[in-house]
Specification:
InterPro entries: Amidohydro_3 (IPR013108), Metal-dep_hydrolase_composite (IPR011059), Metal_Hydrolase (IPR032466), Metallo-dep_Hydrolase (IPR051781). About 25% of the residues lie in helices and about 25% in strands. It has eleven helices and 18 strands. The strands form two sheets. Strands 1, 2, 3, 4, 5, 14, 15, 16, 17 and 18 form a ten-stranded mixed sheet that branches. Strands 6-7-8-9-10-11-12-13 form an eight-stranded mixed sheet, sandwiched between helices.
Length: about 400
């Protein structure tokens, strides 16, 4: 299968979403050659390049969800589709999420229908250290086709979930002690060592991989910061449900925050202070904020809706679009590949019928690496590798 192609998206209004983007909208063309954006703006379309007419529509980079369990936790399949938590492995840094991904998970097609073209796939939060994480495209026949970068980080959990998992610590102090033990072993790691968990964590300590820390409650967030200060690794907070209660700490550390899922009930004590105002509060404090569905906790097609509701509760509209594109790309360290409409980046482009933050707007046409892979037609169609189309 040739995963890349050429295409020109013409006639639309472009929102580039680059790091320097200030909300500008411009009429122009996005030219993709061999799967990468070649030019954006007033661009002549070379002969023979397929054209997508975006007249009257908005053209944006594909959205990025920085915390999902797509492919490792299939909806409605019970134990058969549950490859998200390796039971009995409280410290499983050597585990790799992408080894468990099923590209046939229906959630990938749902993602395309919402304009989501890149996701981070994380292990679950049942273990203190769940394993390594990967960034994937949401279209492809094998994980190898879909990989953007792997590993990008290591998933760890604080709070309720690792406490109640079998085979792990039963208290918050036990969870923190397990993390200290694991990082202490990584500090002692040598090339001759056979401890593969320590080998991976040594890469975290060296700054090669980010530490993606599940933390809802304010005290767990503070523990995450304390541990990062002790060992010096790059911390990315995930969920951050009570981040507004430790706002001074987060502002002082300038930590990136992956916030969500927002569209949930207060289903456990850690979510007692869940609020859709949190993204706006954190962004207003100068933090880099990204939004997540934590799919399948919230279905991934509701990622734009989550942003809309966050705007309703105070998040700036332009910042909401950044929280779906360039911000998660930068947080994950893949902004050299995705998150913006800029030359050299992957040709992941979405044609929207209107403002993505309006709930009636649709992703009409989705391009991944220059290949048309989704179009709105009678409920949505997704491309097959042989070039045919199948209805959702």
């Amino acid at each position: 299968m040739n995963p890349t192609a050429d295409v020109a998206i013409v006639g639309g209004t472009l929102l580039r979403l680059t790091p320097a983007w200030g909300g500008e909208r411009e009429h122009g063309t996005v030219l993709v050659r061999d799967g990468r954006v070649e030019a954006v703006g007033d661009v002549a379309v070379p002969a023979g390049v397929p054209v997508v007419d975006a007249t009257g529509c908005l053209v944006l980079p594909g959205f990025v969800d920085p915390h999902t369990h797509l492919g490792v936790h299939a909806e409605g399949e019970g134990w058969h589709g549950a490859d998200v938590n390796e039971k009995g492995e409280p410290r499983g840094a050597r585990l790799r999420s992408w080894d468990g991904v099923d590209p046939a998970d229906r959630g990938f097609a749902d993602a395309l229908g919402a304009g989501v073209t890149t996701v981070a796939v994380l292990p679950g939060s049942g273990n203190v250290i769940g394993g390594q994480t990967a960034a994937l495209k949401t279209w492809g026949t094998t994980v190898d086709d879909m990989l953007v970068r792997a590993p990008i980080g290591v998933k760890s959990a604080l709070g309720e979930n690792p406490k109640k998992a079998s085979g792990g610590p039963g208290t918050r102090m036990g969870v923190a002690a397990a993390l200290r033990d694991a990082f202490s072993a990584a500090q002692r790691h040598t090339p001759e060592s056979t401890d593969r968990d320590a080998e991976v964590l040594a890469r975290v300590l060296a700054g090669e991989l980010v530490w993606q820390q599940h933390a809802h409650r304010a005290d767990d967030i503070a523990t995450a910061v304390r541990l990062a200060d002790e060992f010096g690794y790059r911390l990315v907070l995930n969920h951050v449900t009570e981040g507004h209660l430790v706002l001074d700490l987060l502002r002082d550390k300038q930590l990136p925050a992956v916030v969500g899922p927002l569209l949930t009930s207060r289903s456990k004590p850690e979510l007692r202070n869940r609020s859709m105002a949190v993204p706006g509060i954190l962004a207003g404090a100068g933090l880099r904020v990204a939004l997540t569905t934590d799919h399948p906790v919230v279905p991934i097609q509701l990622l734009p809706v989550s942003a809309t509701l966050a705007v309703k509760e105070g998040l700036d509209r332009d910042e909401a679009l950044r929280a779906l594109t360039v911000n998660p790309a930068r947080i994950l360290g893949i902004d050299d590949r995705v998150g913006s409409l800029a030359p050299g980046l992957d040709g992941d482009v979405v044609v929207w019928s209107g403002d993505p933050l309006e709930v009636m707007s649709r992703a009409l046409h989705v391009v991944v690496r220059g290949r048309s892979v989704y179009r709105w037609d009678d409920g949505g169609q997704v491309a097959r590798p042989d070039g045919s189309w199948v209805h959702l």
